Fold this protein.
Amino acid sequence: MKICLVSLAVVTLVSVACRRPAPKIVVPELFRVRFQTSQGDFIVEALHAWAPHGVDRFHELIRVRYFDQGRFFRVVKGFVAQFGVHRDFNVHETWRQFFIVDDPRQQKNIRGTLSFAQSGVNTRATEIFINLVDNPMLDNQGFVPFARVVEGMDVVDRLYAGYGEMRPEGKDIDPGRVEEEANEYLVPRFPKLDYIKTARFIP
């Protein structure tokens, strides 16, 4: 009888422990991320005060290693370098629907800043671009900088841009297929695209 009671107690404790909520993640006011790429490393500094919702999502994506092996699929000289489509199109298909609420713009889209791509109000999800130059026209279009490159901007400048703008303005990369097929489409057809090896927090 005692053995049964002990067993029941253990089962009860395990059951309670399994129901405990996961510890809440506290996003730092400022943190840095090292991007190791096929062209070398660059370091990004994210500032919560710039765009809280955007920084929270960026922190989440880094935690789950979302960007690893992702391609810089849109690199336009004198404009932007864009990434943020997961290597697996099934994973990207799920995440691209997890929109975040817009942040009011606190900073300008100047060279070296990072902003989420979006297609309207409250449509930011996973895709991010780095401003390669000052882009004042983006300031009034809802693009909100949330971070900046603090080291290695020369690496960003070297990202392969030979495929140019995506269709229909360009002639090579089909944005619809990027979204729907990810690396399965990009890697064999556009082998010169640079990519992210890893993106990790710097302690």
